[in-house]
């Protein structure tokens, strides 16, 4: 994502290399590479559509357990999103205003959920979680908040860096607004795009998460797809394509909203698919951390 | 950090001679940290406590007494095989997609800036890089299983039967083919910024000094890019090493890979006493990932020297 924003920002700069070198701008080997990549990435999609057959798509919705599985996944997505916003928005704003020195530490902490293998994390959680949490599926929502932290933190951090938070908050205080009013009417409207990407990434993550749900023995949508394979492989493939389609729409939503926001602000990072990208980009563009 | 702040302010306070003032300041500095208590508590309970619990349980018997038997079992026999498979798989699915991803990134990097092709590839990479897990496994079951679409194509076109010649989608090799589907786009996304960090001026300077294309790459571009490339490979390694969902959904838990073995030991229908073996395997995974990340940090620091 960040890469997209950058690429667009640089779109107008003519590259001196090519004009100086006078080489052919796009030799054959590049077409070969891109063609190979195209084949590798498109064939499985085509194969899945062909394998499932168009008739099995409506079947997915009629299968036993589908409604309860998708219902659980949606509930978990909703709860996770609410907790993530309630926890992360005040924390990130607070760190920006009062403890800017620990931003690097925050970055290091929030990258941990990506670094630690999810299978190891859930195994540990199941060992320490108290009984009343183990007996409900909502322990998963609490854990998904942890898994969403890397995306949520980085989206919100980028959003807050894009405008002069301190001055705005001081101005708001000067005009007599209290902290809740400032947060609600000054800060949040300014980070709406960042919050939207945080929410979309969180929802996409929860709807696709399999590892933790399957170890915790709750049948979310991805777990249902795998369980159902025993009945009908075709339905599982069709359900996978549907899941994919929803995820793509969600992610394309950030691409669109994100690049629009970037254009308004004249480029820069907006949101991220891959945490590593932003880290690298942050280093390369020499942005203050 | 709170302490250093207070010390720094101390002389000023002392000069004014107001002792209560100093106390107020210290209290205020302390209160500052209150704002991140909810986040800190959440991370401690949801992330740190579980990891500590695993580290302890890895050295305990099921009744709680200290032992090295779990670590010993985890590094022998089937579990050693699982670790070896996992490491091999992660190295292969870091290096091959790493090289291929670099080529794709370079191909679009040198395409006309702002071109449709470039935008399409970057957007698609963003989407595909995040597309691991269950749906991916079923896409490949439809493609390369014994009755998969591509398997049948290959057999009909060339008479070559993949499955009769030792290929199986449900072995580490098959899993590797599937992992590349998210590893290649991930590589494109993480290496592109490094490619963009190569300044055109360097290339012009090299060219003015008479360097040919390969000489530029051998003496300028290559050495500058290499640390970033290595860093990206480590990220891909970590991403493949911790993946669970794709391999589990693909093979139904039959492939000998460490994450799958941990899942099998701890999903509730195994003999009691085997759980601590699972914790030991988990600890080993975390240690391996930690080593990879330490090297990543070192390499990244080197990369940052040129690419800023």
Number of helices of chain B: 14
N-to-C span of chain B: 29 Å
Q: Report the strand count of chain A.
A: 0
**How many separate domains make up the residues of chain B?**
2
Overall number of domains of chain A: 1
CATH topology of chain A: MetI-like fold
- What is the CATH superfamily of the largest domain in chain B? MetI-like
CATH topology of the largest domain in chain B: MetI-like fold
Mean pLDDT score of chain B, rounded?
Answer: 84
The biggest beta sheet of chain B is recorded as: none
Low-confidence stretches of chain A: 1-23, 263-289
Radius of gyration of chain A: 22 Å
CATH superfamily of chain A: MetI-like
Count the E strands of chain B: 0
Radius of gyration of chain B: 26 Å
Biggest interface pair, counts: A-B, 101 and 100 residues
Uncertain ranges of chain B: 1-17
Look at the helices and sheets of chain A and give the structural class: mainly alpha
- Strand content of chain B is under 5%
Query: How would you classify the quaternary structure?
Result: heterodimer
Describe, in plain words, how this protein is organized in 3D.
The complex is a heterodimer of chains A (289) and B (308). Helix content of chain A is 78%, strand content 0%. Chain A has helices at 2-9, 16-21, 28-52, 56-62, 66-98, 103-115, 118-128, 131-134, 138-161, 165-174, 179-190, 192-208, 211-215, 221-228, 233-265, 275-284. Chain B is mainly α. Chain B folds into 2 domains: 2-57, no CATH class; 69-306, MetI-like (MetI-like fold, Orthogonal Bundle), CATH 1.10.3720.10. Chain B is 77% helix and 0% strand. Chain B starts with a helix and ends with a helix. In chain B, 41% of the residues are buried. Mean pLDDT of chain B is 84; it is low at 1-17. The chains are: A mainly alpha (289), B mainly alpha (308).
